[in-house]
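Demo today. Your pick:
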Amino acid sequence: MGRGRLLAAAIAVAAGVLTYVLVARGSPPAEEVIRRQAIAMAAAAERKDLAFIMEQLSQHFRSEDGSVSRDEVRGILAAQLLRGEWVRVMTSDLDVKVTTETAAYFHGTYIFARSKAKTLKELARESVIGAWEITARVELEADGEWRFVSASWKPADPASLL
């Protein structure tokens, strides 16, 4: 077999393996996509990347009771994140339930702390901790992205998380 044919055969095999791996793996399940999105939002909060967080909210976002708009959420987040009070943002007890091909429910807790801690156990030694329990409806929008379309939130007892 000539060198050219051997190279062509090797390229064909590599392309076949790559295609098989990509098709077999496919996209991650919606639950995983939404869970990763929620964790990425916490990381964005630590970086004070308000733009990233807002990209995860639908243009039609409203609080569950309809009293808070997307723009008002932007203002609340800007006041909390940009004043520099919270240094760490962590997640706990994230749960995602997909109800249809285009809708899901999310529930989780976001923990905010003035700390350099990297784990929840390290946070136990800190004195300034706040936590919010969030329940949200998430929908797959026309552009193929999952976005939070409504949410409710309430304070959570940080001590119960540790």
